[in-house]
Amino acid sequence: MDESQQREVAEAFDATPELLPFIPELLSDLWALGCSLEVIVELLRPLGLPAETTRVLDLGCGKGAVALTLAREFGFQALGVDFFEPFIEEARRHAEEMGLASRCGFVCEDIRDTLLKANDFDVVIYASVGVLGRLDECVAKLRQCIHPGGYMLIDAVFLADPEKVESLWHEHCATHQESLRRLTAHGDALLHEVIIPTEDVKALNRKYTELIRRRAEKLAELHPEAADSFLWYVEKQERESEIMETTMISAVWLLQRP
Asked: Which of 25, 170, 217, 219 is the residue whose CA sits 20 to 30 A from 119?
């Protein structure tokens, strides 16, 4: 990666380029990386999509939690794409260990490049990524990856109260009503919406930040010269979690292209 790409990847992790080499260790206890894995599975289950022939594209797949779970649960063929090579390498290791390497492939690539060539998938998943702009812009790109009748599954957030926005962290967020309008702006059907209870989000955030803090403390012992950077990262995660819990509501949407 060049310097601009490193900065962009670092920003995706709320980190600095100098911290990137430590991200795999800092996040080593997090597999699903914040996406609503169980909800995604339960939204797809009633669709009755055929095993073996259903093709899933998981954009911003991280360590492959979604792709591998869908391959294991339903027998789908899944392709995961992420720009962070250490996560792609970990996803490939998981696939081998789980006996799913024949069903799951993982590519290290900018998902915006993937979107220029991906097509004819049955399902495309975009969970907790946030690089494709507003929801209507996001859907416009995702729907090109699937055939007519295919499904889009988006895990994102909307504003709890527009008057309480304190950060540009989610500059593309809108109210619930406006989010629904954007999701269906291209004529796609909104089949299901699952709103994640704020208390559940808080509990998960607390669990994640505590796991990250423990890893940061161990890294600080090994790299005392970078101890302040590790502490800064943990505190930033805590601040961002608080902003999300007080100004955003998490939701998962399942759409179908006509």
From this structure: 170
